[in-house]
Amino acid sequence: MQVVVPFAAESPKTRLEPVLSPDERSTLARAMLDDVLEAILETGHEPTVVSTAPLDAAASVLAADSVSVEIDDRSLTAAVDARLPAPGDDPVAVVMADLALATPTALKALFTSVADVAIAPGRGGGTNALVVSHPEFSVDYHGGSYLDHCAIAREVDATLETVDSFRLATDVDEPTDLVEILIHGEGRAPARLRSFGFELDTDAGRVAVSRR
Amino acid sequence: MQVVVPFAAESPKTRLEPVLSPDERSTLARAMLDDVLEAILETGHEPTVVSTAPLDAAASVLAADSVSVEIDDRSLTAAVDARLPAPGDDPVAVVMADLALATPTALKALFTSVADVAIAPGRGGGTNALVVSHPEFSVDYHGGSYLDHCAIAREVDATLETVDSFRLATDVDEPTDLVEILIHGEGRAPARLRSFGFELDTDAGRVAVSRR
């Protein structure tokens, strides 16, 4: 199985602007990418990062022999679609680079699906990760992609599984998402956030983050 | 195994005030309770609703012989703590009444845990459902209860499992949570929301709800 990890190299994570500087957003995005790559490697697969621009591999999981990087500046939909399986090809998994809570166990539940299309939905109707083995399936990441992908699978008569995982449902886009990294994260991303001065604030009903 | 479903009967779901009237909030809360009870019944267990006030059982799952209702106007923590297992007792599960996406499959993954304490965390560090078989464990639902419950389990030397489920992680507290009901819900709650005029708005990046 191919495992593709799309990565937006330029000005990543703009919705975190209220709480993080551009440099910090970039550092956090790379830490999350490293955490995701490491979780994929632990499942026994060799990920391919598809980046919109070249990345400095120094001091990162990108430097590992088992990780490859391809540059593709097309839209997410076009770059992923170009890598989906043709008839006879192995299945292709697509895992978003901001799934900071991804673990090998959670990914394995997705990777071992026997459905033609298996989707781990994100909060708000996104598609955080999927595995495609049906040659006629295509992606469309615009708007509410989870429901769109379910519809596309039905159109091409592909069997469909929705994988129920909080870890895979949690992509990091907005300031409130940082809470989940500090509570459940285990890798570089929570360490980076703590080095930026973030800590949990448990006075509120739902836990919040505060910054020293 | 006992399955306890705490329910706040008076002015439920106040954080939905910006988008729902008091009557609508109450109707939605009862619809979610019914959906949760039905999912529990389908796992083969007979739930006990612990309500802060008497509930009208007409036209609801509460009228089923296999569902009991107890009135307890204490705080959530006190009402649950009083029902946790004493030495020699069967395990006790506690499932929040607003887990509108709960399915029998997701609940079974929790109910069949062999750990002394199994927790399905909610978004924002809450405790959405748990199963307790250790007689010294106690609950504290104030603030970030997931981390507190993990700490309490460690203090009493209980083995701990965290159950990774998006469906169980999704409690319905805030307007953006309604999106998840419309995308993934299968029972009364999505039907009620649609009857109130809500529909998915897929123009945004994350799917939103709009109201006719």
Automatic annotation (TrEMBL), chains A, B:
Pfam family, one: CofC
Lineage: Archaea, Methanobacteriati, Methanobacteriota, Stenosarchaea group, Halobacteria
HAMAP family with a match to the protein in the record: CofC
Molecular function GO labels: GTP binding; phospholactate guanylyltransferase activity
UniProt-listed Gene3D superfamilies: 6.10.140.50, Spore Coat Polysaccharide Biosynthesis Protein SpsA, Chain A
Statement: the UniProt record of this protein carries the keyword Nucleotidyltransferase: yes
Originating species: Salinadaptatus halalkaliphilus
Swiss-Prot/TrEMBL catalytic activity: (2S)-2-phospholactate + GTP + H(+) = (2S)-lactyl-2-diphospho-5'-guanosine + diphosphate
Family: Belongs to the CofC family.
Protein name: 2-phospho-L-lactate guanylyltransferase
InterPro entries with a match to the protein in the record: CofC, Nucleotide-diphossugar_trans
Entry keyword set: GTP-binding, Nucleotide-binding, Nucleotidyltransferase, Transferase
Record pathway: Cofactor biosynthesis; coenzyme F420 biosynthesis
Primary role: Guanylyltransferase that catalyzes the activation of (2S)-2-phospholactate (2-PL) as (2S)-lactyl-2-diphospho-5'-guanosine, via the condensation of 2-PL with GTP. It is involved in the biosynthesis of coenzyme F420, a hydride carrier cofactor.
Signal peptide: none
